[in-house]
Amino acid sequence: ANLGSILDMCIVDSDKQPQVVTCSGADKEGSLRVVRCGIGIQELASIDIPGIKGIWPIRIRTTGPLDNAVIITFMGYTRILHFDNEEVEEIETKDLMSDQQTLYSGMTSGDNIIQICARCIRLLDSFTLQIVSEWRPPAGERIDHVGCNKTQCVVSNGNKITFLSIEQGNIKQVSTAELDHDIACVDITPIDKDSHESKYCALACWVDGSIRLYSLPDFQMLQSHELGGEIVLKSILMVPFEESCYLMATLGDGSLFYSDLDPDTGKLSKKKKIALGVHSTTLQLFHAFDANHVFASSDRPTVIY
To answer: What is the sign, positive or negative, of the torsion defined by CA atoms of 61, 64, 68, 70?
Structure first.
């Protein structure tokens, strides 16, 4: 929108995020305009499906590079929706854990679909939708949080963390470790542009409010920053931009902490904090226009690039 002509302006610190209030226009067309950080979202289509807890794009029965389906999860069950032009069809398969809530899903190496639930991890063939491989945590344990890429997976249960590899259609347990505090969130996004594998595992802990960086596969701690305060950490993400890398973490009050991340040594530096909103924020990396961007999903959606 056109804010001109601006006759006066001031900065108002509201809801933990500065906003610019302008006196725009003139004479009878004068108005007050409020400007704040965020993005506008244009709705192209909508389907009324209440109770969604998570959604992930996948490819089924195609060799093309574009996603043509989504896995949608609800409290206690999961469904696949396939898109064909303007038609939407629910796909049923006996090997999808449809009676459980999905924690993560996506495409892995070999064009397989991974589905991670609290009690099991499954690889499904993207054409037949049949089981290729399966891994279960030891008896009495469950999966609380997960970080995953095309060839690796890290899952946590309380203070225990397990590293898994995904190779040639098989899920293989590589290593495990126990930390001093329970884990709140975890990420293994690759930051090497020439590799689909990550040599680092970033995570956050509940009790001390710390963000930590560990080496893979041995889980040797490289860096630890305590953020302090009583607000719990909600999301963590390693972000490889064009000329620099960052480690980002969000809190339940909408705050974003970020630090420079050295991709060679794993060293963290220049910790900073900004407010994206006033409610819990989730970070998601996406690629567009030949560059990486981060979508921060909250009461005030934001794209970081």
So the answer is: positive
Q: Within a 10 A sphere around the Cβ of 120, how many other Cβ atoms? A: 15
In terms of Cβ atoms closer than 10 Å to its own Cβ (0-12, 13-18, 19+), residue 81 is middle
According to the model, what pLDDT value does residue 268 have?
92
The answer on pLDDT for 88 being more than 70 is yes
If you ran DSSP here, which 8-state letter would residue 231 be given? P
Quick: pLDDT tens for 47-76.
Answer: 888 999 999 999 999 988 899 999 999 999
CA dihedral for 225, 259, 37, 147, sign (positive or negative): negative
**Cα–Cα distance measured from residue 161 to residue 179, given in angstroms and rounded to the nearest whole number:** 8
The pTM for the full model equals 0.86
* Structure-block tokens of residue 147: 């970080």
Question: Whose CA is closest to 79, among 88, 92, 68?
Answer: 92
Q: How far is CA 256 from the centre of its chain?
A: 14
